[in-house]
Amino acid sequence: MNISVFGLGYVGVVCSACFSRDGHKVIGVDVESTKVDLVNNGKSTIIEEGLEEQITKSVNNGLLYATKDYKQAVLDSDISFVCVGTPSLSNGAINLAYIYEVAKQIAEVIKEKKSFHTIVIRSTVKVGTLKTCKEIIEDISGKKHNEDFGVVSNPEFLREGTAMYDFVNPPYTIIGTYSDKSRVVMTDLYSSIEAPVYQIRPEEAEMIKYANNNFHAMKIAFANEIGNICKENEVDGHVVMDIVAKDTKLNLSSYYLKPGFAFGGSCLPKDVRGLTQIAKSHDLKTPLLSSLMKSNFYQIDRGLKLIYNTGKRKIGFLGFAFKSGTDDLRESPIVTVIETLIGKGYDLSVYDSNVHLSSLLGKNKEYINNHIPHIYKLLKEDVNNVIEASDVLVIGNGAKEFGKLLPKIPSEKIIIDLVRVDKEKTSKDNYIGICW
């Protein structure tokens, strides 16, 4: 393929080298003469193992050259990768000026172009950037998306120091586009890379890089805070975190990485509070760990606001143990929601088969009698009684019976799902998901 790459900084020059290594003809585009001259002389614009050797080889083979002439670059290519910088503004927001400037330049050129052109945003950008670029290109060029051109979000996952390796060994390839033609082009382009390909909405693709990098930052901050606490207690933090990282069932897995409602139960809230208190006893600051309970309370507030916004007063709860498959009500966030609504005079009814059974057997009876007798009075034995009595139904845990029940709930009832019992559903019509 013929590829133009806008921006010969870190991402752009690595992509240029790697695409040309695969036999594609690559034209690097940059406004800085220094970078253009470096590439054309077989030199790299950054320090990265193996990069300069590949640039030299590609230039000598006639598969890579650089230019400041963006017009000719677009005319001589079928795909344009946008790899320009998106630096932070003074308020922390990202500066998208360079992205939009390149979109305008490409639009000017494809106005005169007869063949289909694919524009790929490789830079890290906020949600909605691709949509704005599409509108800019349509407005300036007079061309139509998916007929004359296509735009794609294709975030990169390159680590400094191992970028050449990471390019051909990514965790996955993300193709976010509404253009069928560009989707085919991108799938073909990455066909030689052995990694899962996820074809998703552009908005989801734009969010993935931010989610990944913030997750990495969170892990580093977490390990540092644990390490600080360990040191003050004469414990080797590396030993602790090395063992933590060996748990691939829970710690390094997808198990807890699912958006939904607040955490609860007898362990997590107690141990979060306990560890932060240990840190305080040593005069240590733990900004990340100390934020966990605040974040949890915010998610409870968010669930309450979804209920308030319906304007309805008759609310039914399907599941109120802190998670499915248990009758444990200790620090259940749903219990907090129910108690708040009781205090505000809402008309409530509650169903949870596990809690009902345990209360009859006495397993959970003491807790119910001593802590939440007012909620137990609302507990119904038949789920249909809750559905009939309520205008809004809140799904509080992921019990399988609720997933089967969901399609049978009358359309005039509003459903607020805090756990996503149906993985295919997103907020639409009478169904509201807390994070989807």
Overall description:
By secondary structure, this protein is α/β, with parallel strands linked by helices. The protein is built from 18 helices and 13 strands. It has a six-stranded parallel sheet with strand order 3-2-1-4-5-6, with helices on both faces. A five-stranded parallel sheet has the order 10-9-11-12-13, with helices on both faces. It has a two-stranded parallel ribbon with strand order 7-8. The two termini are 38 Å apart.
Helix content: 40-55%
Question: Structural class of the helices, strands and pairings?
Answer: alpha/beta
Tell me the number of helical segments per DSSP (H or I, 4 or more residues long): 18
Please tally the β strands and state the result: 13
Low-confidence stretches: none
- The fraction of residues assigned to DSSP E strands is 5-15%
Termini, distance in Å? 38 Å
Overall tally of structural domains: 3
The side-by-side strand order for the widest beta sheet comes to: 3-2-1-4-5-6
CATH domain fold name of the largest domain: Rossmann fold
CATH architecture of the largest domain: 3-Layer(aba) Sandwich
Give the CATH class of the largest domain. Alpha Beta
Averaged pLDDT: 95
The geometry reads as globular
CATH superfamily of the largest domain: NAD(P)-binding Rossmann-like Domain
Radius of gyration: 27 Å
Pfam family, one: UDPG_MGDP_dh_N
Pathway: Nucleotide-sugar biosynthesis; UDP-alpha-D-glucuronate biosynthesis; UDP-alpha-D-glucuronate from UDP-alpha-D-glucose: step 1/1
Keywords: NAD, Oxidoreductase
GO molecular function: NAD binding; UDP-glucose 6-dehydrogenase activity
